[in-house]
Every structure is written in structure tokens, then in C-alpha cells.
Amino acid sequence: MALMKTVVREKNVEEKLQQHSEENVNVFKAKGLNLWYGNDQALKNINLDIKKNGVTAIIGPSGCGKSTFLKTLNRMVELVPIVRTTGSINYHGVNIFDTSVNLVELRSSVGMVFQKPNPFPKSIYDNVAFGPRVHGIKKKAILNDIVEKSLRSSGLWEEVKNRLNESALGLSGGQQQRLCIARTLAVEPEVILMDEPTSALDPKSTLKIEELIQELKENYSIIIVTHNMQQAARISDKTAFFLNGEVVEYDDTDIIFSTPNDKRTEDYITGRFG
Amino acid sequence: MELDAQNRSESEKISGLKQVTKEKLTQKSFKANLLDFLIEKAFFVFGSIAVFVLLLILYFLIREGSDALREVGIVEFLTGTRWYPSSPQGAGYGALPFIISSFMVTTGALIIAIPWGIFTAIFIAEIAPKRVREILKPVVEVLAIFPSVILGFIALVILSPIVANLFGLSNGLNAFTASVILSVMALPTIISIAEDSIKSVPKDYREAAYALGATRWETIKTITVPAAKSGIMAGIMLGFGRAVGETMTVLMAAGNALNMPVREFFGVTLPNYFSSVRTLTANIAIEGSDVPWGSLHYSALFVIALILFVITFVVNLTADILISRQRRKLNNE
Ligand SMILES: Nc1ncnc2c1ncn2[C@@H]1O[C@H](COP(=O)(O)OP(=O)(O)O)[C@@H](O)[C@H]1O
Ligand SMILES: [Mg+2]
Q1: Which of B73, B190, B321, B326 is the most buried (most CB within 10 A)?
Q2: Chain B residues within 8 A of A121 when measuring between CB atoms
Q3: What ipTM does the predicted assembly reach?
Q4: CATH number of B95-332: 2.60.40.1930, 1.10.1200.10, 1.10.3720.10, 1.10.8.60?
Q5: Closest CA relative to residue A210, chosen from A165, A255, A177, A253
Q6: How far apart, in Å, are the Cα atoms of B80 and each of B16, B77, B135?
Q7: How many beta-carbon pairs under 8 angstroms link A with B?
Q8: Does the pLDDT value for residue B239 go beyond 70?
Q9: Which ligand ends up closest to the CA of A195?
């Protein structure tokens, strides 16, 4: 009897340890995730562990559910009222679909950058300070620090430091996107979701953003949806190939782009469809 | 489909149909030129006619009012407190009570209607479930075309007794009652225009705010409403126009007494909302029907109309300038 108890206890400890180390490696763990828009299923039984600190790319043809999956990770997808989900996404030991999850907390630690740069029609300063202000920071000195730090991290500080009070809409597209990244960094997230962040930008701005992603991945877990396979190959550590709402293949980026396992992955990356 | 298009352009190249030449690039058909010219002129003409009509009205008001302006003087109109145009001796042409009354009733109506209208607009545009919205919108629209005489009647028989009871007054027809009923009239304009402009705020802004962890209320307060501000201002201005120009309702609700609607409170002269008031519009309506044509009194009424015209014009112009300045600032033009 006593022996069994210790065995059970040891097993528990072991499980805990394993769980702990897993949390150190993975930031998200999606299990049996399904998602419907009304009657149309957009995500089908997704099982995906997303590595901490690093860049995970999501590729796949248009309409395969890349954006939907990304928006599920911070539950932005629920802004569409007809959305229904089953399955779970584990984040810090919590299923993010739990009714007890605080969306404000979730979204401030899982930030998002959108396809089209979408700065607010406010000054550059107010754009970056928006998040911190919403989360209750009022002291001007602290806000100043956050704004400067975030703009430096996104590589925009030198370009805008003398015009912080000008409208953000006066910036170029590439600058606007880096401002949106700065705005996200200002709430000190752990994860940054990026939905085709360079698809509306010129090659030069794209390059800048890609370099920025390389810098940011030291401190953040980045999940990026991209239409551009060279981009995925250039900047990501892991790549997931989505097709019709399913994950066809998920592996190290090198492997996906050199020796994919699945015929469909190979067809896609060699440009046979998509 | 694509192949087709390709084939076509190939064949066009061969047949020379699609050849680009200097002549083709620079020539413009006479017909197109004429059409351009006519359309441009037509817009100019219609625009000019509108301005011309406005100027004509202004000219008419000044011409008819010129007798009174000359004999009484604009200063007496704007500062005098006695209005006794038909008294043979000691006639008074002070329109200040009307100006103050119009100001009080309009301001009162807006103080009620602006927050009420904006909150309703936010509710309809952002918060209400679809079904509630589908009921609310038509209700607001019906309110907009509601005959003002009915609202005036409601003020007369229902609202004024309530006001009298509530505040212990002998007569419930006063500036307060008029303000309340006028606010109901200004409301639909404010609501529909504010709602439209809130709706037209790009979804992107809202998404960005939510993604930064803002709650729905924070998003509305800090993003949606500020982005819709110029539209909301326009709605308020139109609501103002409605309130300041409205005649029938105030005529029935305000009591129309000829006096200065002010009272001393601790040595300060303040507007008294519980006094019976007569607005600029109401005075024209009351006296306009039986004033002898061509008399000084007749001319004086035109001066009152002129004052009304100028007030409305100045307020709208100011609002326009404010709105476009703000829009320019937002778009960084
Ligand atoms: N708001 C929505 N309402 C209904 N269906 C949607 C909505 N957004 C996306 N979908 C559907 O979900 C599927 C996946 O879309 P999406 O995630 O945007 O694909 P991707 O980003 O890979 O191009 C598509 O079939 C699309 O039509
Ligand atoms: Mg997409």
C-alpha cells in the first residue's frame, strides 16, 4: 500500500517535471483543434506544438486557414460571431478556451501584427503608448521610456524621434508596419503573431522587417503567416504547411524546404499549386 | 480565361490593332472633350445657383429689414430688452429677449440631446445585438419625420403638466419644457449621422485595439469615437440647425411670454429655464401673420430673421472649419 503511494507520487512528480520542461520548450500546444465559421469548417483537427523563442512560419495556399489559426491563438477569431471551436490550445498550462481565461491578459501577452499596417489615426507617440495606457500606465515619464524603448526595438526611433507628435498616417507603409510592431512590443508580449506582415510592403521595407524579426526572435516567440516561401525559408526555424484547414506537415524549416515528407508539401513548395 | 486574354492580345499585336502610337496617346475625341466641358460647367452652374439663392435670401432680408435697421439701429436690436413695436409712444425694438430665449432653448436641447444621441448611436453601431438594432433604427427614423406639431402637442398636454408638478410651477410652458421636447427633435439627426460615422470607422482600428488587450468600452472610448469625431460633430451641427430653426414645437411648448428670461442668483444674472420664453422663430410666427405690410414693425421682423440667419450661418461655418481642421490634422495633410 505504502509502496504504491510512493510510486504514484513519483509518477506525478515525473509528469510534472515533464510538463515543466515542455513548457520551457513549447509556448503553444494545440490539441485536436477544430474551428467552424457557421457550418464551414476552417480548421480540422490541428495538433501543433509551437516552439518557444524562435520563428515559426505558417505557409499554405490562400484560404487554407492560416489566418484563422493565427487569430485563434489570441482568440481574436471570436470577433466573428458565428465562430465555434472544439479542442484545446495549451498556453502556460491553461487551455485558452477556458471560460476563466482573461482575454485582456491573453492578448497582452500574445500580441498581433496585421497584414495591412493599421496604425491608429493618432500621433506616433499615442500609437505606441496606447497599449500601456489601456493597461493603466499614466505616468508620463514611464510612458516616454516605453515609447522610446519600443521604437528603438522596432528600429524606428531614429527616423521618428523628432516627430513623435505627428500623425502616424504620415509615415510610409514600411514605417507604419514597424510602428505597429513597436505598438505591440510596448505591451511587453511573450508571443508576437504576424499575419503576412510584409505582403503590403515594397522589397526594401520587407527586408527591414525580416531583419527585425531576426532580432526579435531572441526575446520573443514569433509566429508568422506568409505567402512568400522564400521568406519562410529565410527567417523561420520551424515551418507548418497548412492545406484545406489541416496541417499537412510540420518540421524544421530546413527539412520542409529540402526533403519534405509529404508529396503535397513538395508540390506546394516547388510551386506546383497554390 | 487568362489564356484567352493572352491569345487576344497576341492577335492584336499581329494585326496592329493595339499598336501604341504617339497620335493615339495624345489625341482625345471632340465628343469626349465636349462632354467633359459640359459636365464640368453643369456642376459649376448648379453649385452657383445654390449660392445665388442663398445670397438672394440674404439680400431680400436686408432690403426688407433696411427701414428698421436705419430707424432703430442694429445696436438697439441686439441689446434692447423691450419689444413693443406697435406701441404708438415709446415703441421698443429690443430683440435681446428673443436671442437669449433661442440661445437657451437650443443650448438646453443640445445639452440633453448630445450625450443621449451619442450614446444611442454608439449603442446601435457597436453594442446592440442585431435584433435590437433592427428595431431601434426604424424607430429613430420615424422620430425624424414625426410632424413637429404632434411633438408640440405632446409638450403642451403631457410634458408641461409633469414639469409644472415636478418643480412646483404654476405654468409648465417654459424654456425647460421646450428644451426637452426640442432635444427629442434633434435626436434622430444626431443619432443617424453619428451612427453612420461610427460605423464607417475602419474595422482595422478596432482589431488593433482588441489585439492590444483593450476592452470593448476602451476601444469605443479611445479609438472608435475619436476616429468618428468629425462625423459626430456634423451630426451635432445639423441637430443644432434643427433646434434653432424649429418653430412649431417651441411655439407650443415655450409659453411665448415677452420678457427677459433671466433671474438674479446671488448677484449674478443667469438664464432662468423655468420662465416662459419667446424665441426668434416663435416671434416671427406669432407676429408675422397680422403685421401691417410695409410698416416699421414688418421691417423689424425681417431684422429678426436676419439675426437668425446670421447665427445659423456663423455656427455652421465655425463647425465646418473646426471639422475640416480636425480631419486635416488626422490625415496629416
Ligand atoms: N469571417 C469569416 N467568415 C466566414 N468564413 C471565413 C471568415 N474568415 C475566413 N473564412 C473562411 O475560412 C477559411 C480560411 O480562411 P483564412 O484563415 O483567412 O485563410 P488564409 O489566411 O489561409 O488565406 C476560408 O475558406 C475562408 O473563406
Ligand atoms: Mg490570410
Answers
A1: B190
A2: 205, 226-227, 330-331
A3: 0.87
A4: 1.10.3720.10
A5: A177
A6: 83, 6, 49
A7: 75
A8: yes
A9: 2
